[in-house]
Amino acid sequence: MRQFEFTAPDTVEAALATPGTFLAGGTTLVDLMKLNVLTPQHVLDINELPLRGIDTSDGLRIGALERMSDIAAHPGVYPVISRALLMSASQQLRNMASIGGNLLQRTRCGYFRDVAMPCNKRVPGSGCPAISGANRMHAVLGTSDSCVATHASDVAVALVALDAEIRLAGSEGARTVRLADFYRLPGDTPDVENDLRPGELITEVVVPRLDWAERSTYVKVRDRQSYEFALTSAAVALDIQDSQIADARVAVGGVATVPWRLSSVEAALRGKPATVQTFEEAAEVAVEGVKPLSGNSFKPSLLKRTIVRALIEGSR
Question: Ranges for the FAD-binding PCMH-type domain (predicted)?
Fold first, then answer.
């Protein structure tokens, strides 16, 4: 880890006025600093900023500095969000990690985290060895010739499914961005991962009121039961009336370069009976456009099974 300056502003205005890299829980930033993947000259500890609080009176509003474990345990938080949080990392990390930091976490691609290897996310134009190398954990959706790294966040998948927005503060004022629009596909610029502008700060996560999201769940398939990233995952919410699916929300993780909303699967579910056959037929649509790599050709079929399992659980 290289030397850096450290300050702790106590107002949002002071934080925005000081150039540097923001530190909340530190569960991603500190790791990458130790590996010299990130080498900020100035680190700003923002934990004293007034960016906390959870309000469930009309939808869901979460301060960006709220810890993952506190959100998961809070009454009134939609089940799909709680489950996604509880399946993330370890209890110790969840006690430290902030919701804002989780949404901004970097990929766990081994090539990105190894400074001895080329990586277009870390050094634009250097190449993507994962395309022909060790790629079992990598993406099959939303990829490009420049990058096949998966997005790491579990809760981002749940939030994208529920049409969440994030509030941002910056030197040019505040703005609100739909989370699904916030993340960028890699294309030719995989180093540009999201729509966060220089010096901007996430201040709040807002989930619109969706009463039927009480019938929701998150299923995560991984190599071991805890402290492991997803091979595939699915966040679903179902509005079932008289055994018919009136509406649905479906997003998946572990298979794409961004949290991946499956509007086509949602459309295939609406108006259909809530049966296993319906779920299986809808899941077939999920793999349209997949591009498996040499080491992850199992992911499309695993993704379909994960979606079906989540829909079965979510329909109960």
Answer: 1-212
